[in-house]
Amino acid sequence: MKFPISVLDHLSCKQVALLTAVVASVSAASNDSGVGQPVGGLISVRVGHSQTPFPEWLTEFTGLKEWPGIDPPYIPMDFIDFDQIPDYRSYEQGVCGANPRESCSFDCDHCVAPDDVFTCSKLSQTFDDGPSLATERLLDNLDHKTTFFNLGINIVNYPDVYKKILDGGHLVGTHTWSHPFLPSLSNEKIIAQLQWSIWAMNATGHHLPKWFRPPYGAIDNRVRAISRMFGLQAVLWDHDTFDWQLLVEDQSLRTEESIYRDIQDWKQSGTGLILEHDGAFKTVQVGINVGRILGNDQMTVAECVGGSDYIKSFQQEG
Ligand SMILES: [Zn+2]
């Protein structure tokens, strides 16, 4: 396993135990601030709470009977053409220079492809890493439609929260199954991360996602080639709150006040996509406050570019 897992919280309520684990990258510093270890997705498993039922069609297709853990198995699919995937080398987080600039890495070189979405004509919030229990508080306090990039493993563990997101009219894109640093993985493992996240959304929300935000913004033309075969379009950002640093004990990293100051600055231009997180209550509270500063005149990612919400939506059975 690539990621160390540390149990953060251990709650129990009415015999429902909540285990929350943080998947944190072990990489060296990858940004200018010299801060290593960006916090990865908050992956939660609720023991005793019902998951999204594992659908029969998925058993027929995969031969499996339950949702996988954080390392999902690769299942071959007809439409994946390995000849179309460029032969760039895999690399670990923060270890840049393995590939030529033409590989167009966003995390290493801030390179974006022509079909990447990274800004918006109206300054708008986006939220990664849910759904979580904290997401519910956000939903109860947002007066505008927003965009969530959800982890498949969290979707099947929080199907009720996922449905509440949809009921609120928000847009959901995929943030992979379990939040790995995709450029470090084999083609097959990247495919597995996308296919299982899509199946989680299909089984829980009866739709297929169109929008895809790579964890850590880690995407190059190898990852893009694979994601495009699923019909996915990559979504990055041009304003980062670094709200995850609030979850780290070091007070010198980021304060709420510094985030709100940045928001006021960004509001002057009035355009852009803001990266935030709804995996924890602390960042959700910041998201609520940021929403109050910005107001409700925001767009979803699909609205930003005049695109559709989902590749396909299915009638719910039964
Ligand atoms: Zn994330």
UniProtKB/TrEMBL annotation:
Needed co-factor(s): Co(2+)
Domain NodB homology: from-to ranges: 121-302
Compartments where located: Prospore
E.C. no: 3.5.1.41
EC class (word): hydrolase
UniProt similarity note: Belongs to the polysaccharide deacetylase family.
Pfam families: Polysacc_deac_1
Gene Ontology CC annotation, any one: prospore membrane
Presence of keyword Glycoprotein: yes
GO molecular function: chitin binding; chitin deacetylase activity; metal ion binding
Role, per record: Hydrolyzes the N-acetamido groups of N-acetyl-D-glucosamine residues in chitin to form chitosan and acetate. Chitosan is a component of the spore wall.
N-terminal signal peptide: 1-28
Transmembrane feature ranges: none
Single biological process term from Gene Ontology: chitin catabolic process
Catalysed reaction equations from the record: [(1->4)-N-acetyl-beta-D-glucosaminyl](n) + n H2O = chitosan + n acetate
Keywords, in A-Z order: Carbohydrate metabolism, Chitin degradation, Chitin-binding, Cobalt, Glycoprotein, Hydrolase, Metal-binding, Polysaccharide degradation, Signal, Sporulation
Protein name: chitin deacetylase
Highest taxon of source: Eukaryota
